[in-house]
Design brief:
heterotrimer, A alpha/beta, B alpha+beta, C alpha+beta, B: alpha+beta, Alpha-Beta Plaits, 2 domains, two-stranded antiparallel ribbon, 5 helices, 8 strands, about 20% helix, about 25% strand, C: alpha+beta, Glutamine Phosphoribosylpyrophosphate, subunit 1, domain 1, seven-stranded antiparallel beta sheet, five-stranded antiparallel beta sheet, 18 strands, globular
C-alpha cells in the first residue's frame, strides 16, 4: 500500500543477547509475526501483525521477547486520541463496522474497586475457616412460596426445581464454535469436578459432553441452534439468552468458515453456512411472549429443571428483571457491560449497557421492594475478576456469579481481544485444528479447578473475617460494604454507606 | 517405574523439549548464555510429518538392544534406567545402529549420548517434561 | 443521635424463668437473677418481659407506650381511638429510683380492634394489630409502642436491669414467666426504646450477641412488610420469629432449623425424612439464617424458647427444678435463685430448648 495510515500498535522487542533462535516464537505465532532468516541466522518480527497475545513471550525459553506499546505518537490532543484517529483510518479504508472481542476495555468506573469489605473486631468474633465449618454451597432457583403440611402435620417438602453449587461461581455461556472443543471440555470437566455448572452458550452440546449433563446449563438463544429435546433434557438448567452484556440489543454471527465438522453437526446447520442469531427472539417481542417460551421449555422437560433468563444490563434493567421474575423464570442472569464476547461491534461493546454493580444493586432492591426477590435467584456476570468481586457481588444481593473472561484467562487467554480473527494462539477462541490442540484439556480443566478452589478458599477467609459462616448470610448483606470515593447518588443506587459512616 | 511417555495428540511441534533437553545436559545456569549461537544436539527429538508431531527419546526398553549390543559394557541398565559410562565407551556406535527408535546418538561430548532421565543433572526430573507447554510429554508410572 | 439512626452493637446478659405448671410468681425473682450479671451490662439499657401478668385483661392487647411529649400522646391516642376499643388506660406505675433518669411518658392501654375497622382491613386480628403498631412507630413522631401482646408486658428503660426492675415495681407483678435483659451497648442508645426486650404481639426477645447476618436478614424480612426502625439484632430476630411462626405457621422447632440451621454436612448425615425437611427449610428460608454469635430467649404466649447460634459463640445455660425452668447467660444467675437444681446443662449451638405450659394451665 502506498500510504500506511496505520502504524502498528505494538512492537516486538527481542533481546538478541538472549535469543537462541530456537524458533518457538515462529512456530507458535498463528499471525506469522516471527520469521527466522536462515542466511543471517537471526529471528526477525513483523510488528504490524502482532496482536499482543503473549504466546511467543510465554513460550520463549530464554525470556528474549517482550511486547511493548509503541511510543510512536500523534500530536498530543486531549480530544482526538490516537485510538480515535486510527479507528477513522480503518473505517475510511474498509468502510465497515469496527469489530472487537472480549469485554469493554474503556475507562468507565469499576465499582467493585470502590467498595470495601468489613471485618469483625471485638464485639463479634471472626471465624477461622480452617477450624470451623464455612459454607459456600448455594441452591439456585425459586423458593417454595407456601408451607403445606400433610395429614400428620409434616411439611410437604416440595421444592421448585433448583441447582446446587458448591461455591457461588459458574462458567458463563460460551458456545462451542466461539470457543474450541478443548476449551469446552476443560470447562465441562472442571464444572463437574468442582460441583458447579458451565454453560453451553448458543452452540448446542457436543455429543461427547452429554455425560457432564448434571453440571451443564444448556442455552436457548435467538438462533435456536442445536436445540432439541435430548439437549434440553440432558441439562441441569436451561438458559434463555435474551441478551449479552458485551452487545446488548445485538445478535450473534458465527461466520460460515467456522461452521465446520462437529460444529455444524452440533448446531444442526449446514457446513459453511453463517450462523446468525437474530438480535431479538422473533417469537419474543414482549414479556408475555417470554413467559410462553419459559413454560414451553418447562413443558418439554417436565418441570424438572430451573429456567434461567439471561439479559444484558440496560438502563431499565430493574423493571425488566421484575417482569421476568413474574414470568415463570427461576433464575435471572444479568450480564454487565464489561462482559466478554467472541465478537461484537466495537461501538456497541464500548457504549451500550450498564456496570453490573449498579444493575445488580438496583435489580435486587426492586425485587425486594416488590416482595418477589424469593421468586428468583440472581446471577450476575460482566467482569467478575476475583474472589473479592464475588464476595462483593453476593453482598450486594447476588446468589451467584458467572465468570467467562476469568475462566478463559485461567485457560491461557491473554486478553489480546482478537477472538474475532479466529486465530487464537492459545487454542481457545479458534477452530483451527493445529491451534485447538494447543489447549490440552487435561491441563486446562485442572487450571480451572485450581482457580475456583483458590477463590473458594479466599471467599471463606473473607466471610470468616466478617463473622459469617454461611454464604446465604452474606447475600444482600450490604452493611458489610462501604464505598470509597463514590458520590451520594452512586451510594444510594448501590445501597451502601460511604467508608467512615 | 516412572518413564517418559509422549502423546502426539498434544504435541505442538514447538521443539521446546529439545532445547530444555540440550540445556539440561550442560548443567548451565542460563539457557541464553549456554545455547546462544550453537547448534543443539538434544537427546529428545521431535519427529514431524503432515501435521503430526511427537517427541522421541530413549524408552529404556525392557530388552534393550543397545545394552545387549554394547561391546564394552559402557551401556547398562540400572534401576530401570539405561545409562552410559563414558569412560568405557569406545565409540563403536553399535548402539546407535541397533536402537530401533533412533534414540541413541553420536555425541560431541564423549562418543554417544542418550536420554538418562536427567538422573545425572537434575535428580531424575526430566527437563523435557517440565518444559513441554502442553502436557504432551509426561513422566509417569504406567505399570509393566 | 438515637437508637435507630445508627447500628448499635451490644454485649448483654439474659435470663428467663418459666413455670410449666402455670404457677404465678413475683417479678422479684427475675430481678435477683439478672442482677448477678451486673458486669455484663453497662447501665445503658435493661428490661423485662412478664407473661400471665394481666389475667384480668387477658383478652385484650396490652399496649405499653413511650411518649416523648404530650403532643405525641394526643396524636397516638387519637389513632388508637380510631382503630381500637380502649378498655382501660393508665400510666404504668413507677417509683423514683435515683439511677433512672429522663423518663419519657410511659402509658399502658388495654385495647381490642374495632370490629368495623378490622373487617374492612381484611386482615386477621393479629396482623391488624401488627400493622397498627408499625403505623404508630413509624409515623407518629415521639410515640413508640414497646409492648403489644395479650396478658403480657415489657418493661424497659435506660439503666442497669435491677434498677429498671425497681423503677417499674416489677415485684408487684405476678406471672408464669419472666425474661430479663441487661445491655452493654457500644454506643449510647439515646432513648428508652432501644432497651430490650423487644416485643411484637406476645413475642418478646432478649438477645445477647451481634449477628453478622444482620443486613441480609433485615433486607429479607422487610420484604414481608416489617420495618426495622431500631437497627438492632433483637428487633430483626423478633420479626423473623413472628414471620416464620405466626405468618408461615412453622413450629418453633422448625423456626430453630431456619434461623440456626444445621450445617449442610450435618444435614447430609440425617435420616432421609429429617434430611429432606431440613434441606427444605434451609433452602426455602435461606436469607433468614442468622449467623454470628447470639443467645436468645423468646417469650411467647404459654411458652419460652432458648436458642444459641450454631457455633455457640455466646454462653447460655439452662436448668430445671420440679416444674420450674431457668435459662441465663451464666449459671450463677440461675443458682442465685435456685441452687438445688434437678438438672443443669448447656444446650448445643443451634439446639433450641422449647418449654410450654402443661396442658390446661395458663
Amino acid at each position: 500500500m502506498a500510504v500506511n495510515y496505520i502504524y502498528p500498535e505494538y512492537e516486538v522487542v527481542r533481546n538478541y543477547d538472549r535469543c537462541i533462535a530456537c524458533r518457538v516464537c515462529e512456530r507458535q505465532c498463528a499471525n506469522e509475526v516471527h520469521e527466522y532468516l536462515k542466511d543471517i541466522k537471526k529471528m526477525v518480527a513483523d510488528d504490524s501483525k502482532c496482536v499482543n497475545c503473549h504466546r511467543c513471550v510465554s513460550l520463549c525459553p530464554t525470556r528474549a521477547l517482550k511486547i511493548v506499546k509503541t511510543d510512536h505518537t500523534f500530536k498530543e490532543n486531549a480530544n482526538w486520541s490516537g485510538k480515535s484517529i486510527q479507528e477513522i483510518y480503518k473505517q475510511a479504508e474498509g468502510g465497515g463496522v469496527l469489530l472487537s472481542s472480549m469485554g469493554n476495555p474503556e475507562k468507565y468506573p469499576v465499582y467493585f474497586d470502590k467498595i470495601l469489605l468489613n471485618a469483625s473486631q471485638v464485639t463479634n468474633p471472626s471465624i477461622d475457616p480452617l477450624r470451623e465449618p464455612m459454607e459456600t454451597k448455594v441452591l439456585l432457583g425459586s423458593k417454595a412460596q407456601n408451607i403445606e403440611r400433610d395429614e400428620n402435620g409434616r411439611i410437604k417438602k416440595v421444592m421448585p426445581p433448583h441447582v446446587e453449587l458448591s461455591v457461588p461461581v459458574m462458567f458463563s455461556a460460551m458456545s462451542y464454535g466461539s470457543i474450541s472443543y478443548n476449551a469446552h471440555e476443560s470447562l465441562a470437566r472442571a464444572a463437574s469436578e468442582l460441583g458447579i455448572l458451565y454453560n453451553t452458550g448458543e452452540g448446542g452440546l457436543h455429543e461427547d459432553f452429554y455425560k457432564y449433563g448434571k453440571n451443564t446449563i444448556v442455552q436457548v438463544a435467538s438462533g435456536r441452534f442445536g436445540v432439541h429435546k435430548a439437549y434440553l433434557n440432558s441439562s441441569a438448567a436451561i438458559e434463555i439468552k435474551m441478551g449479552q452484556g458485551a452487545k446488548p440489543g445485538i445478535g450473534g454471527h458465527l461466520p460460515g468458515a467456522k461452521i465446520v465438522g462437529d460444529i455444524s453437526k452440533t448446531r444442526m446447520i449446514p457446513e459453511g453456512s453463517d450462523a446468525i442469531s437474530p438480535a431479538p427472539h422473533h417469537d419474543i417481542y414482549s414479556i408475555e411472549d417470554l413467559r410462553q417460551l419459559v413454560f414451553s421449555l418447562k413443558e418439554a422437560t417436565g418441570y424438572t429443571k430451573p429456567v434461567i433468563v439471561k439479559i444484558a444490563a440496560v438502563h431499565n434493567v430493574s423493571a425488566i428483571a421484575s417482569g421476568i421474575a413474574r414470568s415463570g423464570a427461576d433464575i435471572i442472569a444479568i450480564d454487565g457491560f464489561r462482559g466478554g464476547t467472541g465478537a461484537a461491534p466495537t461501538r456497541i461493546r464500548d457504549h451500550v449497557g450498564l456496570p453490573i454493580e449498579l444493575a445488580l444493586a438496583s435489580v435486587d432492591k426492586r425485587l425486594r421492594d416488590e416482595g418477589i426477590r424469593n421468586n428468583v435467584s440472581l446471577v450476575v456476570a460482566g467482569s467478575i475478576r476475583s474472589s473479592a468481586d464475588v464476595v462483593k457481588a453476593v453482598a450486594l444481593g447476588a446468589d451467584a456469579v458467572y465468570i467467562g473472561t476469568a475462566a478463559l484467562i485461567a485457560l491461557g487467554c491473554h486478553l489480546c481481544r482478537s477472538c474475532h480473527t479466529g486465530k487464537c494462539n492459545w487454542g481457545i477462541a479458534t477452530q483451527k485444528e493445529e491451534l485447538v490442540k494447543r489447549l490440552n484439556p487435561n491441563l486446562g480443566y485442572k487450571r480451572l479447578v485450581n482457580l475456583i478452589t483458590a477463590w473458594k478458599h479466599e471467599i471463606k477467609e473473607m466471610m470468616g473475617g466478617m463473622g459469617i459462616n454461611s454464604i446465604e448470610a452474606l447475600k444482600g448483606n450490604r452493611l458489610m460494604l462501604r464505598g470509597v470515593g463514590l458520590n451520594e447518588k452512586e451510594l444510594e443506587i448501590l445501597g451502601i454507606k460511604h467508608a467512615g459512616e | 517405574m516412572k518413564r517418559v511417555y509422549v502423546n502426539e495428540k498434544w504435541c505442538l511441534g514447538c521443539h521446546l523439549c529439545e532445547y530444555y533437553c540440550a540445556f539440561a545436559s550442560t548443567g548451565g545456569k542460563d539457557m541464553a548464555l549456554v545455547l546462544k549461537d550453537i547448534e543443539i544436539s538434544p537427546r529428545i527429538r521431535i519427529e514431524e510429518m503432515d501435521g503430526i508431531s511427537f517427541a522421541v527419546s530413549c524408552r529404556h526398553c525392557d530388552e534393550p538392544f543397545c545394552v545387549k549390543g554394547c561391546i564394552t559394557g559402557a551401556l547398562s541398565k540400572n534401576d530401570g534406567i539405561i545409562t552410559i559410562d563414558k569412560e568405557k565407551c569406545i565409540g563403536c556406535y553399535t548402539c546407535v545402529l541397533s536402537c530401533p527408535y533412533g534414540a541413541v546418538q553420536p555425541s560431541d561430548d564423549g562418543a554417544i549420548q542418550k536420554c538418562e532421565l536427567c538422573i545425572k543433572t537434575h535428580a531424575g526430573v526430566p527437563q523435557c517434561v517440565l518444559g513441554c507447554p502442553n502436557g504432551a510429554i509426561v513422566f509417569e508410572e504406567r505399570g509393566a | 443521635m438515637r437508637e435507630g439512626m445508627f447500628r448499635n452493637l451490644s454485649g448483654c446478659a439474659v435470663s428467663g424463668i418459666f413455670s410449666k405448671s402455670g404457677k404465678r410468681f413475683s417479678g422479684e425473682l427475675i430481678i435477683d437473677s439478672i442482677s448477678v450479671m451486673h458486669e455484663r451490662s453497662n447501665g445503658l439499657g435493661g428490661g423485662f418481659a412478664g407473661y400471665g401478668i394481666y389475667p384480668e385483661y387477658k383478652d385484650f392487647y396490652a399496649f405499653h407506650m413511650f411518649y416523648d411529649n404530650f403532643a405525641a400522646k394526643k396524636e397516638c391516642e387519637e389513632f388508637l381511638e380510631r382503630h381500637f376499643d380502649i378498655i382501660n388506660l393508665s400510666k404504668i406505675p413507677t417509683r423514683k429510683v435515683p439511677q433512672i433518669k429522663d423518663e419519657p411518658l410511659i402509658w399502658r392501654y388495654f385495647v381490642t380492634p374495632l370490629p368495623t375497622k378490622l373487617a374492612s382491613s381484611q386482615l386477621d386480628e393479629r396482623e391488624f394489630v401488627v400493622k397498627c403498631v408499625f403505623r404508630i412507630n413509624t409515623s407518629i413522631k415521639g410515640a413508640y409502642v414497646f409492648s403489644s401482646g395479650k396478658n403480657m408486658g415489657v418493661f424497659k428503660a435506660m439503666g442497669y436491669p435491677e434498677d429498671v426492675g425497681r423503677f417499674y415495681r416489677l415485684e408487684e407483678y405476678e406471672g408464669y414467666c419472666f425474661t430479663a435483659h441487661g445491655r452493654y451497648p457500644t454506643n449510647t442508645p439515646g432513648w428508652w426504646g432501644g432497651a430490650h426486650p423487644f416485643a411484637l404481639l406476645d413475642y418478646s426477645v432478649v438477645h445477647n450477641g451481634e449477628i453478622s447476618s444482620y443486613d441480609a436478614n433485615r433486607r429479607s424480612i422487610e420484604m414481608y412488610g416489617y420495618k426495622c426502625t431500631l437497627q438492632t439484632d433483637t428487633e430483626v430476630i423478633t420479626y423473623i420469629i413472628d414471620y416464620l411462626n405466626r405468618k408461615k405457621g412453622l413450629t418453633l422447632k422448625e423456626v430453630c432449623s431456619v434461623i440456626a440451621a444445621p450445617f449442610w454436612s450435618t444435614i447430609e448425615r440425617k435420616p432421609q425424612e429429617e434430611r429432606e425437611e431440613l434441606e427444605f427449610l434451609r433452602s426455602t428460608f435461606d436469607s433468614l439464617l442468622i449467623t454470628g454469635p447470639f443467645s436468645i430467649i423468646v417469650g411467647f404466649e404459654g411458652g419460652l424458647m432458648a436458642l444459641n447460634d450454631r457455633l455457640k459463640l455466646r454462653s447460655m445455660v439452662v436448668g430445671e427444678k420440679d416444674d420450674m425452668f431457668y435459662v441465663a447467660s451464666e449459671e450463677a444467675a440461675i443458682r442465685v435463685i435456685q441452687n438445688d437444681l434437678d438438672r443443669v446443662w448447656s444446650p448445643k449451638g443451634g439446639e433450641g430448648v422449647i418449654i410450654t405450659l402443661e396442658k390446661g394451665k395458663s
